[in-house]
Amino acid sequence: MVNLIVKKGGDDSSQNRLLFFLRKSLPDKIEEVIHIRSHVYEVKKAEGKMILKGFPSLRSLKIQESFTRSLKKEGFWQTYEFLSFSKEPLYFDNRYYGCLEYIEPGNQPFYYDTKQQCREGLELLTTFHQATTKLVDNYQSYLSAFTLKDKWLARFKQFKENERLLSFFLPRDVIRDLYFWANWSLNGLLQHWESFTQYQNVILHGDTACHNFLRTANNDLFLIDFDLISIGPAVNDYLQYANRILPLFSWSMDTLKSHRQFRPFLKESFFLYALAFPTDIFREWNRMIRERKYHDPHHVRPVMALTMDKYEYRSLFIQQLARTLK
């Protein structure tokens, strides 16, 4: 018997067609297929497991395959590798699928809830950057250059265009503060843009959320999911990392000072201005409105919490940044 497990919201017809497709296309006997998230599946075979992941184009799949091989060659072993079963790529429902090595997760998922966990994630990210410094030239023609100011300007513009809907959820003074913080941050960042671009380029991970760090059963820490890789200074990833951990530590500047990766940047005006930009709030509200999920309390509640729960701490943090920059 071959089993299929579909998470809530899955399409049974599509899942069954995928199961049939895998049985026909792969040499191993497929025993079970478990839907993890969009276009990602855990596949149980007669001999072990693997992860099946879909990509929007053959080019993106090939770049991912090549990039993970390059990482291993440069000595960065803390990630998965792609498995190869045939010369022909797996193509199903307008997606190209890659087979990834299965890494056994530990009992405790990685999360930014302790300084030790934050430190481990930063050390791994630094090791990743050191390896990718040597790969920039090889991938220059395959990866886009990351420009923070363009991304943030677009995110801010979209947030302002959503103001009519936002006003049903957020108080007027909160929206006003968010606009002020964003304008102040962007103006300062643009004034000091040359300092921002002086650093050596690396290949950026692009999504330093805790779910892209995997704690293994052996207690090792792995970095996964390279869908958003691009080329730019490592400070882009560190800014994103800071933005992820600060809400969990009540927007404490001491939290950043306790990590060696942040200390040099905390002396730079461009970095301090960038820390004030409410990119996380803009990202989540824009996404929820774009996906039309604002009618569902299950989706609204965490975005409201992100915005309001540590709002006073964030405000005090930005005031501290302003005093430092005087």
TrEMBL record:
It comes from the Bacteria. PANTHER family: COTS-RELATED PROTEIN, SPORE COAT PROTEIN I. Transmembrane segments: none annotated. It holds the Pfam family APH. This is Ser/Thr protein kinase RdoA (MazF antagonist). SUPFAM superfamilies: Protein kinase-like (PK-like). Gene3D superfamilies: 3.90.1200.10. Keywords: Kinase, Transferase. The keyword Transferase applies. Residues 40-240 form the Aminoglycoside phosphotransferase domain. GO terms for cellular component: endospore-forming forespore. GO terms for molecular function: kinase activity. The keyword Disulfide bond does not apply.
